[in-house]
Amino acid sequence: MQTESEAKYASRKDYLTLPQRFGELTSVIFILLLLAFYAYNQIENTGFFTSKFGGWEMLALYGSISLSLLPPLMRAKIARRNSVRPLEAFCNLFFAFSILYLLLVFPFNFAHFPDALPAFVRFMFWWLTNDVARILIFLGFLGALASFITNIVKYGNFKLD
After folding, report:
1. Would you say residue 161 lies in a domain?
2. Which residue in 89, 97, 134, 158 has its CB near the most CB atoms, within 10 A?
3. Which of 49, 45, 81 is nearest to 62 (CA)?
4. What pTM did the predictor assign?
């Protein structure tokens, strides 16, 4: 239960300033770059996606990335955090199940992950193997579940003054 001063503080934190709204739009740009990176790998057939990467896998990958655009766009538009939390929680849950599905099917070959990057940065990914990627993907699954729970709890506990 929030005290009155805690409720006032939460209310002030709920509103996004202009720089924060700009930050939300910046995150949209990074999400679009990520989407373009995977699309490029698929279109150019770099070898990153294996023959297991079919329709359901595309839906899981591109669908979860595309859905992740909605929360920052909505926060930027309405300049509020809490109103967007149910949508963000849904996106977190969709992402968690998508990433779990992709982990089980694993239609990737991470030896080819840096192939779509400029040559001068490829060396930075020498350590990224399929085994390491599986661990990172599993951690992403756990993080998405934690974000889902956090957003639901914050939404449920939020009170305006």
Report:
1. no
2. 89
3. 49
4. 0.87
